[in-house]
Design goal:
four-stranded antiparallel sheet, globular, mainly beta, Neuraminidase, 380 residues
């Protein structure tokens, strides 16, 4: 029981269990527990939000932020004023589901489109949906449903979901919905990253379009619960982060049609101990670029390529929920280098991270705030 005399929600209990009881990291990376956040301050941009989950910047510098409970906010990063956007579709805040990610169209100045993912109820349960609408001032119009994951389940976990547009295609990550073996079934969207056109059509060159019994939207499969997705700044590949069970959180690079192994292979184990699947390797299944054991509970990710933070260089930034830090891993020509665990002393759950158009890094943290990383000597 917690101090208030109430039981912890299962998702929090399992995250704490994974953090406290996992084995030592096995990927060989050196780790600095705090080090390079010295001289960097976490400055509050906006507070008092209701479980902020996803964010993206508008061309005018305002930050769109989703609240899991269903509101979309337009945040002025200078004043901190947050104004609710009207016209959002109804979402189901249930378990780990709710209003999830938001993505501003790369052509927003021409088309005014905003994309979002969210949990919905129906069909005897819940699932993940992707839609878009046009934003003008603080109002949405012309809602279009682009994709609805199949099937619906009565379980309330592992909805995913991050969004990315790259080379004219829309990618969305879908969790395994707690039905782990569905991640190895191409007849469901469980544990997949899907690829569609921004208007919802299925590209003819998707890997399983012509396979009988397979769902044509699927781009990659064998994921558990991918909640981070970002475009590598140099080679144009798409990276995802995903939650493992007790250990085995992963960073993966997406390859067309690839199977990432869950639950056949994993570096994690059952929450109450015990082996999952067949081990850590199997022919025809991909290895992660990096795995975290104990679990850090990976949230959103982004790449940092700027010059605001001396000595950082090119890095991938990973939000950490269970181990309450911002994870920075240096990019090297032959892969990933040293790992840094930043702001551990703050004890904040980091949900999402994004480099802003001003070159600063913004995070959603603490369950109620937008924060900005500011070098103490920058004067900004």
């Amino acid at each position: 029981m917690n101090p208030a005399g109430r039981q912890l929600p299962l998702c929090i209990f399992f995250a704490l269990l994974a953090a406290c009881t996992g084995t030592a990291a096995t990927d060989g990376d050196a780790i600095s527990q705090s080090g390079d956040e010295a001289g960097i301050e976490l400055v509050t941009v906006a507070s008092g939000l209701d479980k902020p989950w996803g964010m993206d910047f508008l061309p005018d510098g305002r930050l769109l932020v989703t609240e899991k409970s269903g509101r979309l906010l337009a945040v002025d990063t200078g004043s901190g004023e947050a104004r609710a956007v009207r016209g959002m579709p109804e979402s189901a805040e249930v378990g780990q589901g709710g209003l999830l990610d938001v993505l501003v169209s790369p052509s927003f100045t021409e088309d005014g489109l905003v994309y979002f993912s969210y949990a919905i109820s129906g069909g005897g349960g819940y699932t993940t949906r992707v839609a878009r609408a046009r934003l003008r001032e603080e109002s949405l119009s012309g809602l279009e449903v682009l994709f609805t994951a199949s099937p619906y389940y009565d379980r309330k976990q592992h909805f995913g979901s991050r969004l990315l547009i790259h080379e004219g295609h829309l990618y969305a990550s879908i969790g395994d919905r707690g039905r782990r073996h569905g991640a190895q079934d191409l007849g469901t969207h469980n544990g997949t990253v899907i690829r569609i056109y921004p208007d919802g059509r299925v590209p003819a060159d998707n890997p399983f379009v012509d396979r009988p019994g397979a769902l044509p939207e699927i781009w990659t499969w064998g994921h558990r619960n991918p909640q981070g997705m970002a475009l590598h700044p140099h080679d144009g590949t798409i990276w995802v982060s995903e939650h493992g069970p007790r250990g085995g959180d992963e960073l993966n690079r997406l390859e067309k049609g690839a199977n990432y192994g869950w639950p056949v292979i994993t570096y994690g184990e059952e929450y109450r101990s015990g082996k999952i699947g067949e081990g850590t390797h199997k022919a025809g299944m991909e290895q992660p670029l990096k795995q975290y054991t104990p679990s850090i509970a990976t949230g959103g990710i982004d790449f940092y390529t700027g010059e605001r933070y001396p000595g950082w260089g090119d890095s991938v930034l990973v939000s950490a929920l269970a181990l309450t830090h911002l994870n920075r891993v240096e990019l090297e020509d032959d892969g990933l280098g040293r790992e840094y665990r930043l702001f551990t002393e703050k004890k904040l759950r980091f949900r999402d991270v994004q480099q802003g158009p001003d070159g600063y890094i913004y995070v959603l943290a603490g369950g109620d705030s937008v924060l900005k990383l500011v070098p103490a000597r920058s004067g900004d």
